[in-house]
Amino acid sequence: MNPLLQDIFAEAQKIVDLATTKQWRIATAESYTGGLIGGAITAIPGSSTPFKGGIIAYDNAIKTKLLGVSPSVLGKYGAVSEKTAERMAAGARERLDVDLAVSVTGIAGPGGAVEGKPIGTVWIGIATKDAVSATVFNFGDIGRNAVRDQTVLEALRMLTGALEG
User: Fold this and answer.
1) 3-state secondary structure of 122
2) Which of 4, 70, 119, 125 is surrounded by the most beta carbons within 10 Å?
3) DSSP string across 48-88
4) 132: three-class secondary structure by DSSP
């Protein structure tokens, strides 16, 4: 198996184990990863206990309608931004009624780069009932699928960190 896939599934196993032990419910809000994070988690036996679902919000209208990202945030900061990632995570947590949610929004390429946001720019958001935050990653122009795979791994790591913290 690809070492990255081994890492992804090992991290997903940690999430399922930790969330089950803590009795936390988790969810995802994914843009350009199109459900890969939820797919990695649900590949783990027993994931139905903590994982409640995800929203694939590829289009900005879906980010607004289903996750509560305001058009003004999208207009001012763009879809690939800290504010959007935070609102996506908070929206998923609220709307799916879970304890913890992760969100991802980014530019996987080969197109889509804009000034200040090159290909490989990714924001990952985390929302709990007590806090919402987002972290930026710059994976570079390593290819569309590689950016998506790296994002899945980092999002899972951030979920693990939130569960451990």
Assistant:
1) strand
2) 125
3) TTTEEEEEE--SHHHHHHHH---HHHHHHH-SSSHHHHHHH
4) strand
